[in-house]
Design goal:
A seven-stranded parallel β-sheet has the order 3-2-1-6-4-7-5. By secondary structure, it is α/β, with parallel strands linked by helices. The protein folds into two domains: 179 residues, 3-Layer(aba) Sandwich (Alpha/beta knot); 61 residues, Helicase, Ruva Protein, domain 3. It contains eleven helices and seven strands. The protein is 47% helix and 11% strand.
Length: 264
């Protein structure tokens, strides 16, 4: 009886982790694919979807492909126009790409199983977004920059193209199984995407004033800086400290200084 109770508690905790996971679709081309994604997501215990790029999709076609079993998921889809705004609440973002070793982001790319195991402790206390790009071209470098980790689905060289809903199912399955099979260590609550993007904007401004990066092409240097911080799993307190340092540097450059109070 005690053993069964422990199993039940563990399963409840695993389901709770999946409540922290959201599928984010950037610019899907076909409404039917949104419906298919909703069905796949619910199969794997993920019931939140965000669609970026407008809301002018044929609702009837979405419902047809999702079937009535995922009607509640479709009903609660959030629609946004801007990707940065849509990602703002998430504390960890997984970006999907088919361009293994060719993203120009100087980032290592994991496979779905490695990714799921890496985020298993993170989803316990953090909202995680699984970001997918349009069916025909995937995510661009400017979109992948928001991501904390990149993942690519291995395929046969003879047939590399994967339908959007199939990609979602593969990634969601690995997250599902990792959530139910993980006893991994605790990860603290991380900074939101909005907090980190504010920090990057602040750093870019200061580094341009210091002539550390060229105003004509700041994104090249910022890519390396983003890669560095993406490996650190920054908390909100970390972000506040970094922005406080940036403010002090700015004041020093203007011949003004004041005591810096670090966040507790």
């Amino acid at each position: 009886m005690q053993q069964q109770k422990e199993v039940d508690i563990y399963q409840m905790q695993a389901w709770a982790r999946l409540e922290n996971v959201t599928i984010v679709l950037k610019g899907p081309k076909y409404p039917g694919n949104i419906g298919s994604v909703a069905r796949c997501a619910k199969n794997m215990g993920i019931e939140k979807i965000v669609v970026v790029g407008g809301s002018e999709y044929d609702r009837e076609e979405i419902n047809r492909m999702s079937t009535h079993l995922a009607a509640d998921v479709v009903e609660n889809i959030e629609y946004h126009e801007d990707l940065r705004e849509a990602l703002a609440p998430f504390r960890y973002i997984v970006g999907t790409t088919a361009r293994r070793g060719n993203t120009n982001l100087k980032r290592s790319i994991t496979d779905p199983r490695e990714m799921a195991q890496a985020i298993a402790p993170i989803v316990k206390k953090n909202e995680v977004g699984l970001l997918f790009g349009p069916e025909d071209r995937g995510l661009t470098n400017s979109e992948l920059k928001y991501c904390d980790i990149l993942v690519s689905i291995p395929t046969s060289e003879r047939m590399r193209s994967i339908n959007l809903s199939h990609s979602v199912m593969i990634i969601a399955y690995e997250v599902f199984t990792a959530s139910f099979g993980s006893n991994s260590s605790f990860t603290p609550k991380l900074a939101t995407s909005a907090e980190k993007e504010g920090m990057y904007d602040h750093m870019q401004e200061i580094l341009m004033k210091m002539n550390y990066i060229y105003p004509e092409s700041p994104h090249y240097a910022m890519t390396s800086i983003r890669n560095l911080f993406s490996r650190l799993n920054l908390t909100a307190r970390d972000v506040k400290i970094i922005r406080g340092v940036c403010r002090q540097i700015n004041l020093y450059g203007r011949g003004k200084t004041k005591n810096l109070t670090l966040p507790m």
